[in-house]
Write a structure and sequence with these properties.
A five-stranded mixed β-sheet has the order 2-1-3-12-4, sandwiched between helices. Strands 7-6-8-5-9 form a five-stranded mixed β-sheet. The longest helix is centred in the N-terminal third of the chain and has 15 residues, at about 15-30. By secondary structure, the protein is an alpha/beta fold. It has helices at about 15-30, 50, 55-60, 75-80, 115-120, 135-150, 150-155, 165-180, 190-205, 210-220, 260-270, 275-280, 290-295, 305-315, and strands at about 5-10, 40-45, 65-70, 90-95, 105, 125-130, 160-165, 185-190, 205, 225-230, 240-245, 250-255. β1, α1 (about 15-30) and β2 form a beta-alpha-beta unit. The protein folds into two domains: about 5-100 and about 245-315, 3-Layer(aba) Sandwich (D-Maltodextrin-Binding Protein, domain 2); about 105-245, D-Maltodextrin-Binding Protein, domain 2 (3-Layer(aba) Sandwich). It contains 14 helices and twelve strands. The protein is elongated and about 60 Å long.
């Protein structure tokens, strides 16, 4: 029996803003007078445990057509078969949505911790909150700590506690409440804009630097680029703090996606960008703004030929 819904596109979009991107894209591709009005588009969402890092492999295997990921360097690792990816995933880029984010390590002022080296050397039993298993940030944290010579399991072996929580609850005050109540010692995670300023302001948390040699090794071995927590982005940050780059949400697709369909996806983002700007929750105090000449930059992996054709025809890429 044929599929009565004629699904032409399947997207894996885990997370609030990622799901909103999928929704807006699907609605504007399949509306009454839109190009794919005779078809349906499936937008799958779920927890990062289910749809986190696994979505890259699913797209690469053709189980889905589109996915979205931050940091985009992890998609490049997957395409090249490096790091946690044992096989190369044939994926290409469509667009990079603007997003300014970074990994951060915040500790309660109750503890006189100065660095992750001190945590390792003194075997401090931290009560540490991190991203959930399967989440891209958890992969980066595991790689980071490995470069320091210990792991999350070591922290638990020393008598500490490693936890993770619902990302929405985390952003809207869960970590702040726990640290204020003395139930949490530290946070090591991305989504800094969601929890960082509040935990600095409400708890007086200190944001610690990562060793420059460790950051250089992460970039050399895994391609994880360096960025910074800018001076003044949270109370107590009086100078730039070097860290791991989580900027940009990379919309990617299977390499063999039809070129006309890839072209149409990017065209829809361009023509309906005001709807994306309206629906996506900004990750900075400034409004969320889509600039198409920036959407095709810093993709980490090659653009799909259909997407590349659209950007060049419109003069966004030369």
């Amino acid at each position: 029996m044929s599929d009565p819904f004629k699904v032409i596109l399947r997207m894996y979009m885990a997370g609030g803003n990622f799901f909103r991107i999928g929704q807006v894209l699907a609605l504007n591709l399949t509306g009454y007078s839109e190009p794919l009005h005779d078809y349906s588009i499936a937008v799958h969402t779920g927890s990062p445990i289910t749809f986190g890092m696994g979505c890259i492999a699913r797209v690469g295997k053709g189980e889905a057509d589109l996915g979205i990921m931050s940091p985009s360097t992890l998609v490049r690792m997957a395409r090249e078969g490096k790091g946690d990816f044992k096989e190369a995933c044939p994926v290409t880029a469509l667009a990079v949505f603007p997003h300014d984010d970074v990994l951060a390590f915040a500790v309660t002022p109750r503890l006189q911790i100065q660095s992750l080296e001190q945590v390792r050397d003194e075997r401090i039993p931290l009560r540490l909150d991190v991203a959930p298993p399967g989440h891209p940030a958890r992969v980066v944290v595991d790689q980071l700590l490995a470069e320091y010579g210990f792991s999350l399991q070591d922290i638990e072996n020393w008598g500490g506690r490693v936890t993770w929580q619902n990302r929405v609850h985390m952003i809207y005050g869960g970590r702040i409440a726990q640290m204020k109540a003395g139930e949490l010692d530290a946070v090591l995670d991305e989504a800094f804009v969601g929890w960082g300023p509040g935990i600095g302001r409400e708890c007086g948390a200190r944001f610690l630097r990562f060793d420059s040699a460790v950051l250089e090794r992460l970039e050399r071995q895994y391609g994880l680029r360096q960025w910074k927590i800018g001076k003044g982005r949270a109370p107590g940050i009086e100078e730039d703090i070097p860290s791991v780059d989580f900027r940009g949400w990379l919309l990617f697709c299977r390499e063999n996606l039809d070129a006309d369909l890839a072209y149409l996806i990017v065209k829809t983002i361009d023509e309906k960008k005001h709807q994306f700007e309206k629906e996506i929750q900004p990750t900075l105090p400034e409004p969320f703004v889509i600039r198409m000449n920036e959407m095709c930059q810093n993709t980490e992996i090659p653009l799909h030929p259909g997407a590349d054709r659209y950007y060049r025809e419109r003069g966004y890429l030369s």
